[in-house]
Amino acid sequence: MLAFVTGATGFVGSHVARAVAEQGADLRLLVRASSDPRNIEDLRADLVTGDLCDPASLEKGTAGCDVVFHVAADYRLWVRDPWQMYRANVDGTRSILHAARKNGVRRVVYTSSVATMGFTSNGQPADENSPVSLGNMIGHYKRSKFMAEQVALEAGCSGMDVVVVNPTTPVGERDIKPTPTGRIIVDFLKKKFPAYVDTGLNLVDVKECARGHLAALEKGRSGERYILGGENLTLKQILDKLGAITGLPSPKVRLPYVVALATGVVDEMITGRILRREPRATIDAVRMGRKKMFVSSGKSERELGWKIVGVDDALRRAVEWFQANGYV
Q1: What is the C-alpha to C-alpha distance for residues 257 and 255, in angstroms, rounded to an integer?
Q2: Average pLDDT of 36-65?
Q3: How many Cα atoms are found within 13 Å in the side-chain-facing hemisphere of 213?
């Protein structure tokens, strides 16, 4: 089997590529000319230089492939030029599906996000059937992923074999950028967490998440989406776990929403608009934090054989990786 993987230089994509290779498949990886190659240096793979905004590279990459894992995405909670995010996430997904159809790819597994689910403010776990619309999406990242997911689901319901997976919040090693979640861990290690907000996330071990992609390839139904989740935890519980792992103190002060929002406004104005760097706190991130992003993975358990695994080991591996690679 020849598998084409996008996003393999990134966090989740590098684990998916490894999981696919461990099953004995041959790898072909889409790599941007500007990508940091450290996550794929030890992989035996055919490399195709290109990106999601270059349809010719996607056609070249999918040619002769049996399956495609489309993991790549522009994952930022703040961006100066939102058009770039929509071009990569939405148009890029449409282009790779077109290339896969043209080249007779047997099945596509599209990596969406738990961000596209319908969350409530009462903390009730969401699932694949929770009511949701584009209007519920806060920020350009969520909106672009929701729109891209609709493109994938429509393809899966129109004769093409496409399965969608929705990872929650992956943690573990090789978070090279790091992702917004990885920055939480790095900031904690740097003692930059004097207070916390009342929010919650579902954390999943990135290695389990990669295995979930393979389960979706084997058992998923075309045109369906599957949440790949782990533990539902408040931010305070996550920080307490990090404190237990590292011996560093977990913050005890809870920041009121209005103060957190004001911090986001100031950080975006000074860091984003004046210094032209990505802010640590953004307005959209604070607004998203009003809803606890708790989910149920029941559908994946029933149909994919998914098993919920605790995240303590993944958090420990993430801490050790960040420390060993100079992030702290």
Answers
A1: 6
A2: 96
A3: 32
